[in-house]
């Protein structure tokens, strides 16, 4: 049974690349176009990990992390945020909201896989 | 990054730019609309982030400038003015132009970009030209150093699970860095009624010996450094072992860890009992703390013992030329020894015979040990290939894993060196033509990641090297078409699978549709085959469409001396490599008559085809009444060679034939016999092949 990872990102091309990379790594992927969409899908789908962008319409990444952590099914899953800001404030905010780790954009597929392997074991 | 993703990004960016235009125009109407400002910011943010991801660095750094300004607007530090909207619209057009130019290679107007940036910076009140170009992230290869032992105490905060962190993963990552001893400390558990079931009350003492350096250890904890207490101390540098024979005493370790105070330690030490037991019974320490310290002691001892053992098996470095000289001298010696044995046999002198036998025994041992000195494990070559596979798969956008087996198999150094190029070529071929692109593999129901398996194994006095991939397999029809195209085979030719696969070794043959930078260098498999045959080896292909291809290269262990069978035809002597010889049987005149000129012999209920060497080499004279068939096995097929007499086994020092005879078919070299005559060494695989093609 392959593990399921959700990618929440308003950028179609980043979503596509993340999905493509994860599928190659043998994971199943659920896509969400923003935080709101992600939370709706999380309510009905069980995922093993969440990868989310921070800047999204309707509900941003921080809001999504908080919302996901409030769901029993996502309480302890790894959540990784994509940031272009390498400054700490966003990272800290994300961590405070309950994020497990982060990936700084731009990243290469192998960097993404390394982080997934790291937090998902 | 694949073109697929680049294309997706471009489409998305064009869409965003269209949206951006309408947002900006609306923004002019309603400059205070936070929602619109957010939309503009996000559009810029996405173009920047995704742009840098897919290699549009110019677009990313340019967009960054606009994004910075709108971030200020978003945070209320800057208000929307007509000038800002104008500049942003200009920026939008500029980004569009950059996108258009990205694939056509046209130049974008750098002047215009610069002007827009200056304008935006003025608005934002930036001085100077502090450009914030995006730095590409370099992945720095870890510096390999001497192994160092670290003592790591990892105390996660109680609420670490709330951020989805699994501490066990972190411990597993440490295990990957080197030798690792983990002791869990559970004294942090509160009474049951106070316990939060979702809290983490365990902490770990880890002793880790690694050559990756402290930063690699710290990197493991990069996500949790604020949510845990982490102590990393160096406890032993393993390069300085010789000075410190014994590792620290238990008390010392506990003191260093801060598990015990100096006063407590003195108190315990003043009583003459085992320190650990005492400290526990006195209630100064709990059992786990002592266990952790003991584990450290044990771990360091073990690592040291390993290192000392490695140091003890010392070796000396000798220049290769000296070894070559030694092997050459041994070769001469073997020739002389053969003469001595022969002379002794002719003299019928018992004493001389005894000496000759003694010399023969010693020479054989000397030969073996001299050749053994030059034997190296093939593993070093294997690990070089790992890099090749990695780089090539990245270049081709394929996912390939290389597995190896039998890296410890030893081969003569010169053979290994000469094997390098052919093997590189074969691996390139597997990757380039064999393994499919991930999406193709998935469509075929295979895992996206392909495998190239490299294996080496001894077989008699040869080594079998196998390169097996689980790729597409060879396309028989494509090979046939190409063969006809190239004029290698005729259009109606009926070929067996083996013969078809053999075609790929024909000069100038390549089935790749496009010439890639990898295999299509005009250097084909024919070069590989020639190189392998120059090593007196053979190469064999099996392939199943859709399941992969297996190439087996058989190579003699050494190039200098072989065991061989001496045979005679008339007055000529020939040598046959003993490794290929199965058995010798008689061939009588009746047998020949019975087979009606079909050159087939009955050997224990089986038909064995044979090659009468006398006819093949056109040697005059009449054969004896009873001839001998030497039955050999080549690529799993038994073929006999008819000779007049089989003389016996010989050690053969291989001398290459001069330039004039270099390409003689069926002869791979020559050797000098004890009586000074020259015997030719038969190239069995080539002879078999030559006769096969003749019959076809």
From TrEMBL, chain A:
List, alphabetically, the Pfam families matched: Response_reg
* Domain spans labelled Response regulatory: 4-120
Q: Which UniProt keywords apply?
A: Phosphoprotein
Carrying 4-aspartylphosphate, the residues are 53
Q: Which CDD domains match?
A: REC_CheY4-like
In terms of InterPro entries, this protein maps to: Bact_response_regulator, Sig_transdc_resp-reg_receiver
Keyword Phosphoprotein listed: yes
- Name of the molecule in the record: Response regulator
Automatic annotation (TrEMBL), chain B:
Do you know which CDD domains this protein is assigned to?
CheA_reg, HATPase_CheA-like, HPT
List residues modified as Phosphohistidine: 45
Indicate the segments forming the Histidine kinase domain, all copies: 311-559
- Domain CheW-like as annotated: residue spans: 561-693
Alphabetic keyword roster: Phosphoprotein
Q: Fetch the InterPro entries from UniProt.
A: Bact_Chemotaxis_CheA, CheA-like_dim, CheW-lke_dom, HATPase_dom, His_kinase_dom, Sig_transdc_His_kin_Hpt_dom
Against PROSITE patterns, the record matches this protein to: CHEW, HIS_KIN, HPT
Keyword Phosphoprotein set for record: yes
Domain (HPt): give its ranges: 1-102
Please verify whether the record's keywords include Disulfide bond: no
Q: Tell me the function of this protein.
A: Involved in the transmission of sensory signals from the chemoreceptors to the flagellar motors. CheA is autophosphorylated; it can transfer its phosphate group to either CheB or CheY.
- Name the UniProt record assigns to this protein: Chemotaxis protein CheA
> Could you tell me which species this protein originates from?
Geomonas oryzisoli
